[in-house]
Amino acid sequence: DKEDVEWLSRLKLFRSHGDDFPNVVKAIESMMMDDVCRADITFSTVHQAKGLGFRNVLLLDDFVEADRDDDNHEFTEEERNILHVAVSRVASGTLYIAPGTSNKCRTNCLRQWMTMKNSQ
To answer: 59 forms bridges with which residues in the sheet?
Structure first.
């Protein structure tokens, strides 16, 4: 579920910063802006980024339901659709794939991106 992924990400962030978490939140809030076009960095889910384009995109594999290290995982249709939307957010730059991403996810991301680039 989309909300579970968002909450799990928040919990991981909280656990990694412990007692300093309130200061981290304040630092992030002080750098936030409403205008995505003026932002240097945009943190977003794939669903929130649908329809938008960015010069460079760093793709995490938290949308994949299987264990990150499972290279035998077969993507569901929803995961393939999310992957397509994520990869197609790169408007004119580079697709970066986060370290620790499974080889299967990395391969599928690059294949999807190359297919999209070759069809332009």
So the answer is: 97
Question: How far apart are alpha carbons 68 and 103 in whole angstroms?
Answer: 9
Give CA–CA dist 40/98, Å, rounded.
Answer: 18
Strand partners, 57: 95
CA distance 83 to 107: 11
Give 19's DSSP letter: G
- The amino acid present at 37, given as its one-letter code, is C
For all residues of the chain together, what is the average pLDDT? 78
| pTM, to two decimals | 0.60
Structure tokens at 14: 């909280």
Tokens of 47: 């669903």
Q: How far is CA 52 from CA 24, 64, 65, 80, 87, in A?
A: 27, 21, 24, 18, 11
**What is d(CA 49, CA 29) in angstroms, rounded to the nearest whole number?**
20
